[in-house]
Specification:
InterPro entries: Znf_MYND. The protein is mostly helical. It is 66% helix and 2% strand.
Length: 175
């Protein structure tokens, strides 16, 4: 139980920013009789005693810790807001630049033409809609091992599309 109490002291010191007081708190722990340091109830009792001890040593430590934590949370929140704003601006810029009707028609035409060519040539398309690559030579794409109806260009595409494929009704092949 002495080892658990030392870990408790270390945790409280790290939590409250009392890195210099670890030795003093460990010495205070050794002054408490061993009988009082054993058992689950004793562990809770020790926690309360050490928190009281922390308040005696440095009453402002907890406030400093809380202030630092709030400052970190504010910085993280600002960083997340900046990233979200940047992503939104990027999306707006890309959609406004390439969203003209002509570009959309050309992109759809190219996609349809590639699909027809791949089907006509007997080459398989990657089943992951985010990828959509067409195999350059026969046998390059691998079939789903469960149903053998959908083909993927690689393991990454298969794992990223698996949830959708399974939800769509991937049935195990019958032997």
């Amino acid at each position: 139980c002495g080892h658990c109490c030392v870990n408790l002291v270390r945790f409280i010191c790290e939590r409250d920013g009392l890195y210099g007081e670890f030795e003093e708190m460990s010495a205070a722990l050794r002054r408490i009789p061993l009988k009082q340091r054993r058992g689950e109830v004793a562990f809770e009792r020790m926690t309360f005693k050490f928190e009281d001890f922390v308040r005696m040593i440095r009453p402002q430590a907890r406030m400093q810790y809380e202030a630092q934590r709030q400052e970190q949370q504010q910085q993280e929140q600002q960083h997340q807001e900046e990233e979200e704003e940047e992503r939104t601006n990027t999306t707006i810029d890309s959609s406004s630049s390439s969203a003209s009707p002509r570009n959309t028609v050309v992109a759809n035409y190219d996609q349809a033409r590639n699909m027809v060519q791949s089907v006509a040539s007997g080459l398989k398309r990657c089943g992951n809609p985010e990828c959509g690559s067409v195999e350059s030579s026969k046998g390059q794409h691998k079939a789903c091992s469960a149903c053998r109806t959908v083909y993927y260009c690689g393991r990454r595409c298969q794992t990223s599309h698996w949830k959708h494929h399974k939800a769509a009704g991937c049935r195990c092949r019958t032997k």
